Amino acid sequence: MHHRYDVLVVGAGGAGLMAALYAAKGNVSVACISKLYPTRSHTGAAQGGVGAALGNVQEDHWEWHMFDTIKGGDYLTDQDAAEIFSKDVIEAVYELEHMGLPFSRTEEGKIAQRKFGGHTREFGKAAVERSCYAKDRTGHMILQTLYQQNVKAGTTFYNEFHVTDLIIEDGRCRGVVAYDLSTGEIHTYHAKAVILAAGGYGRIFKITSNALTLTGDLMSIYYRKGLPLEDMEFYQFHPTGLSKLGILVTEGIRGEGGILRNSTGERFMERYAPTIKDLAPRDIVSRSIITEIREGRGVGRDGDAINLDLTHLPRETIEQKLAEITDLARTYLGLDPIKDLVPIQPTAHYAMGGIPTDVNGLCLSDGHGGSIEGLYAAGEQACVSLHGANRLGTNSLGDLIVFGRRAGIYAAQYARQVDYGTMPENPEAESKDMLNRMKNASGTDNAALIRKELQETMMNNVGIFRNGPDMEKQVEIVKELKARYKNVSVSDPSQRYNSELMEAMELGFMLDCAEAMTASALNRTESRGAHDREDYGERDDANWLKHTMAYKDLHNDNNVLIGYKDVSLKGYTRAFEPKPRVY
């Protein structure tokens, strides 16, 4: 089947819905394709809030937020993106409020704000209350609000469609190919502009907060075309996921006064970050937790967790401001945070890297200013490099609404200026071949077993702490798993809702993301932000103040080509930091 729209959005999370809404405001026809029903998108798992310098609770300024974003990103953040973001997120939050998003409120009726890790006043002097929140369901409320607004704006939705290919010809994107899960049919979408907003790839790790759908599909498809993925070595582990499960425990819990304790009951973050303790940036807290576990002070049957203590907080704070995570702890662990310590462990959470874009969302084809005409990306899928080497908490939801909006505006502007152009002959051929190979394969390898091995080895070898020998081993493991993947067969012949077929296809996407990530991490011989190497323990600005651009070698399936892109600087450097700098 064939469809035609001015602007086509892939993904219906916060970035996709924001992009679709603002494209629709540009008087163009808009459609949104999603693996899921939109309100089930992974943005709904985001609990803590949106960081914006509203100053509703205490004095705050966008310049302070910009500095924290750059500092948190360990100076790999593109500073033009950080400036745009820190200014625009204020307006974007008020826009969400006017759309009807039910933010929590101060006694005066203003949007409530609370502290969050890494957010400070006066360029690092003390923690600041900057996170705008709706209890601990902020992401869920954003999804509901934006979906309603898109229905009102007339956006057409194609739910439970799985994108299998990007149609790019002569440097311009013409549309996408998608598989209809409900019928097994292939659909071709012809568009003047395409916006990619399909989320991250956290499912390559064993313990992750990411939904089952986050398998890096569009990153892989982009990469398979010889186009670059930027800064894939930087992957954030959230300090607090429910033990063994990875289900996210919002940083807002620590913003409300929650304390991390080891097996002796010590508040150990006082040793690692004496100034802001449990509210240090996520990479620092995650490494501190793993250090405590490595040194034998972990809790639980396997000693691989740390306790989160809320028992000193008022019952009403836990029940009202932290209702969702309280319910999750009761449901999945059988523990009541009001009276019980809750075991947590770091969980793979967020990709700082992805498809490279400029500040308007336009996808880049290299590290020297080249681009793909008519193709945009936003959200975790994209790397405008707002987050640099390590994202601050709350900046993900801010990223979705700020750069989702910009991508929608500029995609609609582009669509109004061009015609549709011609589609290549038989654009769905490659997708059909891929699906038919899996359906008709006679191999004996099992996709689930390969996926399990990938997740376990990535967690062990390219996790929170890294070193050259482990990552070299992982390069070979990924090569071996890719070879085995070619022998995967699908036994389910169903046309409708063939989940075995979809999971097998997603595994191929995950292997691509793991390949690019491992090669990029092995190549960067320094420690910066979330990329912590035990064999290169120091930052090296002289050699590594630059973005990694990983390309698939189209002549050698097992080879990754590495290029670079300059960091955009606007005057913030380490010399700017107040001295001494102690978290």
From TrEMBL:
<protein>
    <recommendedName>
        <fullName>Succinate dehydrogenase flavoprotein subunit</fullName>
        <ecNumber>1.3.5.1</ecNumber>
    </recommendedName>
</protein>
<dbReference type="InterPro" id="IPR011281">
    <property type="entry name" value="Succ_DH_flav_su_fwd"/>
</dbReference>
<dbReference type="InterPro" id="IPR014006">
    <property type="entry name" value="Succ_Dhase_FrdA_Gneg"/>
</dbReference>
<dbReference type="InterPro" id="IPR036188">
    <property type="entry name" value="FAD/NAD-bd_sf"/>
</dbReference>
<feature type="domain" description="FAD-dependent oxidoreductase 2 FAD-binding">
    <location>
        <begin position="6"/>
        <end position="397"/>
    </location>
</feature>
<feature type="domain" description="Fumarate reductase/succinate dehydrogenase flavoprotein-like C-terminal">
    <location>
        <begin position="451"/>
        <end position="583"/>
    </location>
</feature>
<comment type="pathway">
    <text>Carbohydrate metabolism; tricarboxylic acid cycle; fumarate from succinate (bacterial route): step 1/1.</text>
</comment>
<keyword id="KW-0816">Tricarboxylic acid cycle</keyword>
<dbReference type="InterPro" id="IPR003953">
    <property type="entry name" value="FAD-dep_OxRdtase_2_FAD-bd"/>
</dbReference>
<dbReference type="InterPro" id="IPR037099">
    <property type="entry name" value="Fum_R/Succ_DH_flav-like_C_sf"/>
</dbReference>
<keyword id="KW-0274">FAD</keyword>
<dbReference type="InterPro" id="IPR030664">
    <property type="entry name" value="SdhA/FrdA/AprA"/>
</dbReference>
<dbReference type="InterPro" id="IPR015939">
    <property type="entry name" value="Fum_Rdtase/Succ_DH_flav-like_C"/>
</dbReference>
<dbReference type="InterPro" id="IPR027477">
    <property type="entry name" value="Succ_DH/fumarate_Rdtase_cat_sf"/>
</dbReference>
<dbReference type="InterPro" id="IPR003952">
    <property type="entry name" value="FRD_SDH_FAD_BS"/>
</dbReference>
<keyword id="KW-0472">Membrane</keyword>
<comment type="similarity">
    <text>Belongs to the FAD-dependent oxidoreductase 2 family. FRD/SDH subfamily.</text>
</comment>
<dbReference type="Pfam" id="PF00890">
    <property type="entry name" value="FAD_binding_2"/>
</dbReference>
<keyword id="KW-0285">Flavoprotein</keyword>
<dbReference type="Pfam" id="PF02910">
    <property type="entry name" value="Succ_DH_flav_C"/>
</dbReference>
<keyword id="KW-0813">Transport</keyword>
<keyword id="KW-0560">Oxidoreductase</keyword>
<keyword id="KW-0249">Electron transport</keyword>
